[in-house]
Amino acid sequence: MSVAPQPASRLQWVLGAIALPKRWRIGAGPIVAALVLAAIVIVTLLSPVISPHSPMAMDALERLKGPSETYPLGTDAYGRDVLSRVITGGRVSLFIGIGAAVVSVLIGLLIGLVSGFFRLADAIIMRIMDSLMAIPAILLAIALVALNGPSIWSVLFAITIPEIPRVVRLVRSVVLSAREEPYVEAAITLGSSMPKILWQHLMPNTLAPLIVQGTYICASAILTEAILSFLGAGVSTEIPTWGNIMAEGRVYFQLKPSLIFWPGLMLSLCILSINLLGDTARDMLDPRLKKREA
Amino acid sequence: MLGYIIRRILAVIPVMTIVAVFVFLLLRLTPGDPAAIIAGDMATPAQLDRIRDSLGLNDPLYVQFITWVGNLLQGDLGTSIISNTSVTGMISERIWPTVNIALLTIIISVLLAVPMGVVAAWRHKSWIDYGVMSFSVLGFSIPVFVIGYIFIQIFSNELRWLPVQGYIPPSESIGGFLARAILPCLTLATIYVALIARMTRASMLEVLGEDYIRTARAKGVKEDIVLFRHALRNAAVPIMTIIGTGFALLIGGVVVTESVFNIPGIGRLTVDAILARDYPVIQGMILLTSGIYVLINLLIDLSYTFIDPRIRY
Amino acid sequence: MAFKNRSFDDASTVLDIRDLTVRLLDRPEAAPILDRISLSIRSGETACLVGESGSGKSVTSLAVMGLLPKEALAATGGTIDMEGQNLLKLGAQKMRELRASRISMIFQEPMTALNPVMRVGDQIEEVLDTHAKFSAQEKKRRVIDIMNQVHLPDVERIYRSYPHQLSGGQRQRIMIAMAIILEPQLLIADEPTTALDVTTQKQILSLIAELQEKHGTAVLFITHDMGVVAEIADTVHVMHHGEIVEQAPVGELLRTPRKDYTKRLLKAVPSLVPQPARPDEKRGEALVVEGLEKIYGGQGFLVKRESTLAATNVSFSIPRGRTLGIVGESGSGKSTVARCILRLIDPTEGEVRVANTEIARLSRRALRPHRRHIQIVFQDPFRSLNPRWTIGESLIEGPLNTGEDRTKAMKRAQELLSLVGLPEDAVSRYPHQFSGGQRQRIAIARAIAMEPDVLVADEAVSALDVSVQAQVLKLLADLQKKLGIALLFITHDLRVAAQICDEVIVMQHGRVVEHDTAANVLSNPQHAYTRALIEAAPGRNWDFANFCELPAA
Q1: What angle (nearest 5°) sits at the alpha carbon of residue B127, between those of residues B121 and B131?
Q2: Which residues of chain A are within 8 Å of residue B285 when distances are taken between CB atoms?
Q3: Among B210, B228, B246, which Cα is nearest to B117's?
Q4: Which residues, at least 6 apart from C117, have a Cβ–Cβ distance to it below 8 Å?
Q5: Strand order in C308-319's β-sheet?
């Protein structure tokens, strides 16, 4: 009899018993990514305390200044402190990223489970999902924001909706392949009810891929939010977000590229580290889960 | 075979119908008066009436839908609220720059990405592999407009190799077109290359572990033939799929890139429409791009039958 | 039975392996995968490498071909000598030229070993393109010629076919054609018939023998099946944990094995002679099946799909405490019958009565309380337990459904585990901590936790090594004696059926062709197909467990 040590059972349950052993070796990349992300999150959360200036305070005499002691990254066209704005700008991004990931994963999981198990519902649900996927995400989000107004909730809604079909497809495909497993058939012959099988045997199979997919959605939602803001279809311009800061900086790009550079750098670092963590999670949780849904 | 093609073509109908219904309802089911939403807070009652009238909002919902679909089928996407001209006309006037840029981008992307992915899979866990993977994560992570501005800063402002912005149609001057199109295309291509290279690598890695690859090697077949003749063709279906679904990303990128590089295509048209709250134009763009997306993916689905003889269902 | 008995004293040595050691690259301190193995093959000889899973047979063949997975395994010592050249020292280019021209290989899975998107003719031609220059006509002529030599029917059509259009046997013939078209000195066959039905296996074995005779090829044949060894081997090399434990001419090895491991291996081979009939105690029928029929397909959307008759007119009954075997090749409908009886699929026609309740027409919901009376053990031990659940949770899933109290069920789970020969503390462990045989025991414990009237074993020992197979068969027989369960035993393996069944049904193309006591079916078969099945069973005249000839029936 093999003598593997007693597993840390809850974690084990989520990750799938087979996945644990060898693959726990993590390289330097993901650790750096985690540190960078943690730094961004902390700075963003502490922004009201650590910002040297109010991100909204304008100063007509200090427009478009270069870096100085008072303004370490200079000022923008309204004389606002770029550093304070960049620090504060992450709040909306992080909120949208996490919000979109959580909401789309939860809704997608429910729809996907139903779709994967009930043939009748499946045909209809999948047609609707195909259609939703046919509409380019950015355009759909633009239309939704255009109609619902530039509030943060409306942007969250607009970004989450296009992500749902991908989650549904993922969950459905996992359920479809898992229900062929002999242990699921055994559960049927043991007299377990369908909801019980769905929840206890099939749903846990979707957790690992959903964690991975959730990270990717978080990254892509932050990206989409920035693009929406940049296009003028995002959160109201009164709120500093990385996208808004860059949108305002566009006009002065030739004159002062740093107005786009700094928020762009923060944004890219943030998304990059989330993506790297997602890749690491994927490699650890399931080596077969290679296909990233675009 | 024929059955598969027919069924696949017929499957487009429900998808496009649902897209149409969805786009139609988007405006009508939004809480509040659609006309007021479109016109903005400053609108006069006269303006509101004009908008209601032009969108047919005074009719019952089903009448609106029938009229709307009837117009759609005749290629009429409605009338712009701002310029009061036909949306179909506006789009067809400005579609060519976008088509040219998009085609060039797709060609560049596939030519770059597929070899990158193949080599990365072949030299799995080598520095080439890590390089390709790092590039692909970067490509996913940097917003397309940031890439655009970085390119402009480097190639136009610092090195002064290329003009900053603008567009010249290829019919006027091929050189002028290329000089102005190359940066927008590379910008757009970044995320697309990242996507395709990643999928090529993953798909190739999977195929390279298959028994028939071992058989080919056991026959003494040369490694390049193993890679391109045996493996790539078997790995092709997921790669083609990602090229098709990635098209949606490309469309999103076009909207951004055209405003960064000041190209008078339909992407710019969309951005102008957003800023002006010209809803009929946005709606027309959604329908058009979804239609193109569905069409491209249909063609890709049909091409599977040539790649893989087993697909005949 | 007549073993091969040729002398190879005069024959030249084709391949000579000396002290070959292969290790895991990332764990060089671990026990080697191959530990100083030595063997040599002479021209015209068939050397069988026999052993259980994980013994290192396949690694040996890949090492010879130079196809060890580069990132995982490496040969760290010894030589592989072929006509004065050490293959281990050969460069990649030279090694590639050698493959298919001087050493060829055929693999186990004919379904996956051919490139699915290339026509098979082109795949054979590729061997010629790689190693020689011929005109297009000459190439075609040679390919057609070799396809005729491997006895493929309708050669011109198959030449243009894709692999998925061919049967498993035909694909294996294509593989063989590819392997021998350049007349190599050595052919390595890695379990080439394991995935095939017995009747096809017989044809492929005789084809290999025929071609070997014709071309004087040396064959290294890797197998786990002692029956196959008895049929084809000149010499036998027994492998165990990466070592060759015994080498001998086939007759000598089967008559007078010297090493304990070899003896154990031979004793575990189930005999084709049926067990003596058990007295029928007339305890009433546990399962009655009447006129069962299952048709798949029918109308498709737009295209009319052909309907397949998976099983028709199947009737039988099993009394309590008795065992009925259903024997047949792939596609015979035996598993369809099992799945219909369990209502994992719905039968098209017919009746199924379990514990005097008709269940074939019950709705899924109405069926649930009756499910406990009939339970199943599946083939694949690695997929039949939920990897996320502890053994205990898996064992009490059924009892909880019948309303049993959790603590009581868990206590009984422990008893069940000791009943199937596992420690009681296994309840808190996870499936990956157990071997295939142990998992199959757990699956059996899970099934009998429901106190069923009928237990269906669907190829339940087919994925196990023979020694483990024997233990699990014994466990099933013991449990049956203790609990009085009726057993429905689905298998493709006549030997296994002979060991455990009171009655045997033989199925072919969805129909029952023979139904009688095990003794009658095996020793006095009435139907031609049954006779063909028995004749195709390799080594059928040899009593492996007793190292002697079987008395003629």
Answers
A1: 80
A2: 139
A3: B228
A4: B233, B234, B307, B308, B309, B310, C162
A5: C308-319, C285-296, C349-354, C357-358
Percent of chain C, pLDDT > 70? 98
Q: Do B221 and C97 touch (CB under 8 A)?
A: no
- Measured between beta carbons, the chain A residues lying within 8 angstroms of C371 are 188-191
**Within this chain, do residues B68 and B100 fall inside the same structural domain, yes or no?**
no
Q: Are residues B18 and B152 in the same domain?
A: no
Q: Are residues B33 and B158 in the same domain?
A: no
d(CA A28, CA A212): 19
Q: Amino acid identity of B144?
A: V
**If you average pLDDT over residues C378-397, what whole number do you get?**
91
On the question of pLDDT at C156 being above 50, the answer is yes
Instruction: Please report which helix (H) or strand (E) contains residue C484, including its range.
Output: none
A139 band by pLDDT with thresholds 50, 70 and 90? confident
Shared domain for B49 and B135, answered yes or no, is no
3-state SS record for C380-404: CCCCCCCCCCCHHHHHHHHHHHCCC
Whether B78 maps to a domain, the answer reads no
> Last residue of a domain, which of B73, B108, B133?
B73
Alpha-carbon distance of B94 to A236, in angstroms, equals: 29
DSSP H or E segment with residue C541: none
Which residue, among A141, A140, A158, A152, has the nearest Cα to A244 in the 3D structure? A152
Assess whether B285 and B158 both reside in one domain: yes
Whole-prediction pTM value?
0.84
Q: Would the CB atoms of A264 and B290 count as touching at under 8 Å? A: no
pLDDT at A231: 86
Compute the distance between CA of residue A143 and CA of residue A126 in angstroms, rounded to an integer.
23
Q: Does one domain contain both B233 and B300?
A: yes
List the single best residue of B210, B211, B219, B304 to mutate versus C (max C Cβ within 10 A).
B219
- The CA distance from C69 to C475, in Å, is 39
Domain end, chosen from B16, B43, B73, is at: B73
Q: Which range marks the domain in which residue B24 is found? A: 2-73
Span B1-20, pLDDT tens digits:
677 788 888 888 888 889 98
Q: Is the residue at B131 inside a domain?
A: yes
Domain made up of A27-43+81-288: CATH architecture: Orthogonal Bundle (1.10)
**Exposed/middle/buried for C435, CB within 10 Å: 0-12, 13-18, 19+?**
middle
Is C444 in contact with C479 (CB distance < 8 Å)?
A: yes
Task: Fill in the DSSP letter of residue C157.
Answer: H
- CA of C443 vs chain A CAs: smallest distance (Å): 9
Nearest CA in chain C to B237: C117
For residue B41, the model assigns a pLDDT of 66
What integer pLDDT is reported at residue A24 of this predicted model?
A: 46
The residues spanned by each domain of chain A are 27-43+81-288
- Is this complex scored with an ipTM above 0.95? no
Same domain, B102 and B231: yes
Tell me how many residue pairs between chain B and chain C have CB atoms under 8 A apart: 76
- Alpha-carbon distances, residue A85 vs A49, A231, A248, A266 (angstroms): 13, 19, 12, 12
Q: Which residues is C82 bridged to in the sheet?
A: C15, C85
Residue with tokens 């048209």: B269
User: Touching C: which chains, 3+ CB pairs < 8 A?
Assistant: A, B
Over residues C52-75, the pLDDT tens digits come to 888 899 999 999 999 888 878 889
- B81-92 in b/e form (b: 16+ CB < 10 A) is beeeebbbebbe
Q: What is the pLDDT of residues C242-298, one digit of tens each?
A: 999 999 999 999 999 999 999 999 999 988 888 888 877 777 889 999 999 999 876
Total count of domains within chain B: 2
For B291, the closest chain A residue by CA position comes to: A134
Question: Computed over its alpha carbons, how large is the radius of gyration of chain A?
Answer: 23
Q: Using a CB-CB distance cutoff of 8 angstroms, which residues of chain C are in contact with residue A7?
A: 430
B310–C99: do the CB atoms touch at under 8 Å? no
